[in-house]
Amino acid sequence: MLSDYIKLGDRIELCSVLNRVKKPMSPEERSGKVYYSSVYEFRSEDELEVDMPQDHGKLVPLRRHSRYDIWVYNEKGIFQGIGEIEEYTKNEYGRYLMVLYLSEGLKKLQRREYYRFSCLLNMSYRLLTKEEQDKYDSGIIEFIETDITLEDGTIVDISGGGARCVTDAQYNPDDLLQFEFELPIDPNRPKKYSLVGRVVSSRPIEGKDGAFETRIQFMTIGNKDREGIVKYIFDEQLKVRGKENK
User: Fold this and answer.
1) Per-residue pLDDT tens for 160-217?
2) Minimal CA–CA distance to 213: which of 226, 224, 194, 200?
3) pTM above 0.85, yes or no
4) Does 239 share its domain with 119?
5) What is the reported pLDDT for 237?
6) What is the H or E stretch that residue 203 is in?
């Protein structure tokens, strides 16, 4: 039963599937606008009532009978699936809701890889040139511009699959960024990462002129480097729990 692994109030993210026909995506793979909601009520084994998303204080009724990638977040993990908006409704308390039909059910993601850890890490980055991006799309990893100044940014959360960053420019989905950062995996010798990331989304941060929230999917990361990030997240979580238990 759905109530065995998700509960009322759990956070939901939705992103249009468009014409893609494949398995559900991880949060790092998605592109396009993400809508935020929460579980309001269970209707059946494959139907939920969820809050209608809002954008800048305005209700956003998502397109009915269109397919959406869905992610549900709670303390048990991240659950992903594909669903459709069947109808809109308004309850007796004036709350605007949508009926979400889970056409392909929900599957638990491997939290070890996709758990996002909040942090503040300095990073340097730049947009790859068109020529570099064209070469990358052809399967060639080659930095043509080697004598170039990198911009300063901040990583505000990180996972084994990607990162959410604050940048001083807005980018288009699928833009490629070269970026560098360090992790204190070994206190005597911080681990330096130099990666290429694909922009998943980039949007202005309210109240901060010239600052943009940019989500990046890691593209050139090897298993060893990914495991290093996961280890960093695990170690930092242990430190936080240790402080909370004192």
Assistant:
1) 888 999 999 999 988 889 889 999 877 678 889 988 888 988 999 988 889 999 999 8
2) 200
3) no
4) yes
5) 78
6) strand 191-204
Q: Of 63, 82, 109, which residue constitutes the final position of a domain?
A: 109
Give the number of C-alpha atoms closer than 13 A to the C-alpha of residue 69, restricted to the C-beta side: 22
* Pair (126, 92) in one structural domain: no
Beta bridge partners of residue 35, listed in sequence order: 14
Contacts of residue 7, Cβ cutoff 8 Å, sequence gap at least 6: 39, 74
Looking up residue 30, the CATH number of its domain turns out to be 2.30.110.10
Tell me how many domains the chain contains: 2
Residue 12: Cβ-neighbour burial (10 angstroms; 0-12, 13-18, 19+) = buried
Q: Dump pLDDT digits (tens) for 23-33.
A: 555 555 555 67
Which of 24, 15, 14, 11 minimizes the C-alpha distance to 73?
Answer: 11
Tell me, what's the pLDDT at 146? 57
Residue ending a domain, among 55, 84, 109, is 109
- For residue 190, the surrounding DSSP H or E stretch is none
User: With the C-alpha atoms ordered 48, 51, 55, 61, is the resulting torsion angle positive or negative?
Assistant: positive
